Fold:
Amino acid sequence: MGTPGRSVVVVGAGISGVLTARALALAGWRVTLLEARHVGAGSSSRTAAGIRQQFSTPATVRAMRYAVGFYRDFAAETAGGLLPIAQNGYLFLVHADGLEEARARVVMQRDAGLAEVALLEGDALWSRFPWVGRSIVGGTWCPTDGFLFPERVYMDGAARAVALGAQLVQRAEVVGAAYDGARLRAVQTTAGTFEADLFIDCTNAWTARLGATLGGTPLPVAPTRRYLWFLRRAGQISATDLASWPLVICPDGVYCRPENGESLLVGWAHDAAPEPDFSYESQDQVEAGFSHRGDLDARPFQAWMQLAEHLPAVGDFDGFTATTTGFYAVTPDHNPFLGYDPRVPNLIRLVGFSGHGAMFGPFTALAGLTLAEAGRDVVAVRLPDGGEVPLDAFAIGRTPRHAEALVI
Structure:
């Protein structure tokens, strides 16, 4: 169950937190996993849950290749044995003026090891995806991408961590801290005080609050509201066909994927001010103009019209059934922070995923374990296949140089 000097408290039981707890428990750490409400109470239960390897930097491509493989194998560890990933693929659609950029991106991704990614143009695109409109002339396609079933990840991940010896404490909001000099000695919560040698922040959109409570470095992570809507199938697309659709991203940013054979999940980012004072309860508050019960000027109907322009069959669907909302933890370059806090030498911050937390989960856990074992910041994370992912793009205190371009 661990050795002296290897105790860790992980704060936040979403996907990042439970997978980090699992990784540490497997490595012999004595793990306590704290959650302010219940497992999955935050953004993990409100995510579109896409998982893709089509990123715009080689390091992230390699990291997400590892994540896809992890999720493909994860069912073998769990009691239910259910796959947490549907590899329906990801399709980024482009107009003619985006073809050269897309072509260059595919070359980079192939060089990073993503051999199965391809640029489909004209007839090759329409033959493979006949429901794509003829105004779209190309798309980058990766069949091993797809989407997750997030509840399987955070529930099975938490159960696996507990089976490995981790202590899971729910309803344990962190409200204070105790120190030995600059080092954290314990966190005080609504469920008691928990001591450890190491502490890990996996609170993502809540990180500003936890960081302040623990005396950590303020990080530029902005809690920003995003919406998802559910559109009922109708018309010429059968339930079987819809269930096989990939996650599709249109040139104007509206995206969709099948929730099941009868429902299409739809999302579209919008300009939104950060909400630093949001609460667990306010996660589910739907603003005027964003409800599926609104008029034709409401955001979901505008998204539907955009989708129908690019995917004409969607124009025949039967209307919206639901709206859900939650928070992205947005950083200036849309890359997360993975490293030790400069002010608190035994506090690791794994936050700021800008909507990519579910897909990053396995790599986040591997990075957290690597940092924990090293006891300091590291240059790179070694993957099981022997490759490495540099961490400079994820360093705390970095000067943003390359903003992730493929953000929805």
Observations:
- Residues 200 and 348 are 5 Å apart (CA to CA).
- The mean pLDDT is 96.
- The chain has nine helices and 22 strands.
- The first helix runs from residue 15 to 26.
